[in-house]
Amino acid sequence: MNSSLVDSWPFWALLSAGFAAMTAIFAKVGVKDVDSDVATFIRTIVILVTLGLILVSLGKFHSPGQLSTKTWTFLILSGLATGASWICYFRALKLGPASLVAPVDKLSVVLVAIFGVALLGERLDPKQWLAVALVASGAILLATG
Predict the structure, then answer these.
(1) What pLDDT, on the 0 to 100 scale, is given for residue 143?
(2) For 44-97, what is each residue's pLDDT tens digit?
(3) Predicted confidence (pLDDT) at residue 1 exceeds the cutoff of 90
(4) Do 16 and 85 lie in a common domain?
């Protein structure tokens, strides 16, 4: 595989989108006969074990003790936000069609753009803002029928 491709963010972002799409479909079927919080718990265990195995197999598993307090704080906050997102996502999948839940969930793209500009000082050009507006419009259009 081309090294520059594997080292590029678009490659990994597209893989993430593909896996996220499969996640929605698999989760919709999997959550049918179980409480959504139990389904989230099972999913979390699978992720934890899988990532642990990947870290061990790549020799990357080590003590995180050398991390700064700021790093710990923001990783913990990110983990809490991820957990809250998953709980809400699985509950939404339990109640609604995956073809509508997943696009509405992707309003996170819009929020990341806004938060990135407001909180991280990132900049988007007019074309990028148009794309953000189109994502928002598409999610709203899908959700409202």
Answers:
(1) 82
(2) 999 999 999 999 999 988 777 788 999 999 999 999 999 999 999 999 999 999
(3) no
(4) yes
**Which run of H or E residues covers position 35?**
none
58, part of any domain: yes
CA proximity to 135, closest of 111, 114, 113, 109: 109
Residue 101 lies in a domain: no
Q: Is residue 47 part of a domain?
A: yes
Q: Kindly state whether residues 13 and 83 are assigned to the same domain.
A: yes
Question: Could you give the CA distance from residue 8 to residue 6 in angstroms, rounded to a whole number?
Answer: 6
**Helix boundaries (H) for the chain:** 3-6, 9-30, 36-57, 69-95, 98-105, 107-120, 126-144
pTM summary value: 0.81
At residue 6, the pLDDT reads 84
Residue 145 lies in domain: 106-145
Cα separation values, 128 from 58, 72, 89, 143, Å:
37, 32, 27, 23
84 and 136 fall within a common domain: no
Tell me the pLDDT band of 2, cut-offs 50, 70 and 90. Answer: low
The residues, ordered by sequence, that sit 6+ positions from 56 with a Cβ below 8 Å of its Cβ are: none
Q: How many separate domains does the chain show?
A: 2
